């Protein structure tokens, strides 16, 4: 075999190796995207369950203390503990509630459901969080739903 034939064969191996490397990288990226989407679907379902617990806990807290029995207080504690466990489970996967420093709106992190005037707050400051948002690193799992100030 002459030098040119050896160089061509070597070049062909490098090209084939490069193609295989690209193919494997694409397969890995596809698998990672699929895994992330599965985690996101799971997280959204868990977050919706947490929302339901929050509503139930809030309704229970708004009831008159006189109406509360020992059993109702025990049930409320159970709901609160379930909520904490669900949040810890999300945290294990790096999914955490979105925090808005100084209650300032970050548009990509929140969906504005409405606005209200307020003398005590600046424009676009968050007055209320209707539903909390969640993030994993820099990826938004669910936007928060908020009411902001509009003067």
Automatic annotation (TrEMBL):
Q: Which residues form a coiled coil?
A: 19-82
Q: Which domain of life is it from?
A: Bacteria
The terms under GO molecular function for this entry are:
adenyl-nucleotide exchange factor activity; protein homodimerization activity; protein-folding chaperone binding
Question: Keyword Transcription, does the record have it?
Answer: no
Indicate yes or no for the key word 4Fe-4S.
no
User: Could you state one GO biological process linked to this protein?
Assistant: protein folding
Ordered alphabetically, the record's keywords are: Chaperone, Coiled coil
What is the name attached to this protein's record?
A: Co-chaperone GrpE
Q: Which organism is it from?
A: Saprospira grandis (strain Lewin)
């Amino acid at each position: 075999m002459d030098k040119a034939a050896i160089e061509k064969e070597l070049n062909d191996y490098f090209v084939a190796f490069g193609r295989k490397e690209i193919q494997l990288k694409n397969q890995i990226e596809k698998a990672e995207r699929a895994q992330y989407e599965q985690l996101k679907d799971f997280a959204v379902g868990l977050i919706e369950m947490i929302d339901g617990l929050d509503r139930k806990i809030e309704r229970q807290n708004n009831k008159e203390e006189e109406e509360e029995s020992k059993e109702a207080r025990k049930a409320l504690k159970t709901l609160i503990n379930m909520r904490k466990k669900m949040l810890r489970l999300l945290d294990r996967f790096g999914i955490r509630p979105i925090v808005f420093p100084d209650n300032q709106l970050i548009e990509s992190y929140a969906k504005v459901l409405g606005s209200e005037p307020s003398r005590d707050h600046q424009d676009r400051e968050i007055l209320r969080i209707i539903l909390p948002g969640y993030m994993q690193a820099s990826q938004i799992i669910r936007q928060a739903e908020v009411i902001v100030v509009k003067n």
